[in-house]
Here is the input.
Amino acid sequence: MKKCLISLCSLLMVLPAFGETISRFTQSMSAKPGFFDLYYDAKKAAVYLDVDKVDEEFILMHSLPYGLGSNDIGLDRGRQGGSQLVFFRRVGDKLFLVEKNTQYRANSDNAAERQSVREAFAESVLASFDVVASDKDSYLILINDYLLSEHMGIADRIQQVNQGSFQLNKSLSSIDESVIKSFPDNTELQSILTFSGKKAGNHLRQVSPSASSFTLRQRVSMVALPDDNYKPRVFHPYSGFWSFSYHDYAAGLTESMTQRFIPRHRLTKKNPAAEKSEAIEPIVYYVDRGAPEQVRNALLDGARWWNQAFEAAGYIDAFQVKVLPENVDPMDVRYNVIQWVHRATRGWSYGAGVTDPRTGEIIKGHVTLGSLRVRQDLLIARGVTAPFDNEPDLTRQQQMALARIRQLSAHEVGHTLGIAHNFAASADGRASVMDYPHPLFQIEDNKIVMSNAYDTGIGEWDKQVVKYGYGDAVQNNSDDVDINSDDQTAIEKDFLNSIIAESKQKELSYISDPDARPASGLHATAHLWDNGADAAKALTHIMSIRELALANFNQQVIADGVPFSQLEEVLVPVYNLHRFQVEAAVKLIAGRHYQYAVKGEDEFIQKTVDKQSQQAALDALLKTLTPEFLALDQRIVNLIPPKAYGYSKSRESFNGKTGLSLDPLSIAEASANHTLSLLLNKERLTRLAQQSKDNQLTAGSVLRAISSQLVDTDYQQQDAFQINMRVLHAYITQLIKLYNLKSLPIESLSSVVTELDYLQHWTKKRLGRARKSDDSYGYYKSLQSLLNTREESFEGERPSVALPPGSPIGNN
Here is the structure.
């Protein structure tokens, strides 16, 4: 009996912990060896993962290989879901997938110090799995439940944008058998997810065959951590890079706990001692084969511009761009990809990717380029040149559109290199592809010229940024003596400081999103979709382009066979050609010149825009409120009938209040509202009020200038009078909104009260002079009624007319 027990114990010791070996359990399945070995049971549509790396960290990421196709919802083809640092933890007969907290760390040799931080901040258990078979230190788990769960926030997104209430329907979801792949450093799995629900919104109905369900594909990627040879590079506010940061609780008491680095690809010279050298492994990007040939070539050309910057940083052919080989998966983490992505309506493009959550090293760059941008640029080009004459030739228009695609390709690739926007570059003669460029039109012989609409090649700022992020100090070490780490750090610090100093010596401007995007922005040269160093002069220039384009606007902007009603969509960007430069010019008013100054490096910090420049901007902006500027020639109005049968208005059409017909007064009001809303921005108005002590424009003087523009001229022609009344009504409406704004400080409120009283007095005088039989009497009476409501709730006021979508050029 004792011998039997001993034999049984010996047998149990050699059996796997969970009863069956992996090889035996999977003997009838197809195997996919790789980073994680995969096994697929085709009969049961079951995917098994062999976890032989318990407690070992790896990168987990999710993405959408197939998109929804709606710009407004945003679940695009190729969308990236971010990177997570995870590991498998064994607990009994289960494995738990755990995400580590990478925001809080202790960079210390003291294990107890590191452990104290781990214990202080939460980790996240993402999933649990039953172990179905095992070998020594290797555990087989069924991962269907994880793959058939959503990890991209799809249902939440649908709800956030008010497109209905939808939930994942697992009974209509499945494993995607075509993507069960594993490679030495990454494992790729995909599922087909169906969401069912009700109350689908218009945006969802537009792109889904069924209003009650839609189906997407979701990718799960498990990626091996890069080796430890990557060295993070310190962030500088003037470097031009995004910031990758975390909190280091082991930092010295006199040091910042926030550690900031730049995200970048790994790039190393073959010969560190050479001024110029090839890379050990170049950075290679691949362009979507699905892009049309002309577009694909433009994407290749634009992305390849970056090699100019890498050449300037000391590399030879270190940045390469090729066409994606056939049958290569664009979502595979091993490939940097430029995807050509379709949507139902025009939309933004993006530069994203996969980064190592520990270091910020970019593992995969992934560009999403909206395919409708090129068509919108063609629309703008057609609108300003009217090419469809007896012998239509769209060569120039196509060249302009493709020039924009080249620039866009370079821009979005720049983001995937870790580089941020530079919205001040246009003030330095288009010094960066990381700006948002407006087409630079010129007038020659009374014709609009587009030959220089977009710049070619990488900018001077871009070269400096790449030097900072990817360049290295030349290592002239003739004695082949190893440089210790402290010396190497000092060498790199001196090198990076020299790049920053060189950029400043070149007087290259750099201001990014937080300063340039807000409507309340105040930087004098950081703008989106602008041109030139002087925003007021540039506004005057684009107004002259607009005037000529409208004067020449005719039926030749559309091709034969197109209904005349489609002239409206061509007219929209032409009539509103000034809209972005208005946003730029208004920042001069109560604006400032400043940079991302650093103590010990910079003397200049900031200064207020001089009074003359502020006044010039105000003068130019006031011209956009005049009937002369806003009036749409009756010739154009007569050209555009209601929509032809089979066609309909869209958000790309003008908004109006006349039903099916074009509404020139609402078109004018929308443009004026755009200028007024920026001039009357509450933060800008408050800055104006506070700068009065510096002998500058004041809130009161700006409001009075607007009022004078609108009330000092008696317009005899009915069209001009009606436009002016629309604008005046809109102006008073916005003033009353400010008056009722509880957050408006008293120094601003006082100017608003003064101006409302002034306009009330003016209206009373006008009513006193008008007869009830006069056409003008009803207008003045309406204004008086509006002014008398300033103390009342403004919830039911007449909604303002808005511009059709604009930003960015070719997108909304």
The chain has 25 helices and 27 strands. The chain has three domains: 2-223, 277-476+489-510, 535-787. The two ends are 82 Å apart (CA to CA). Residues 32 and 38 are 5 Å apart (CA to CA).
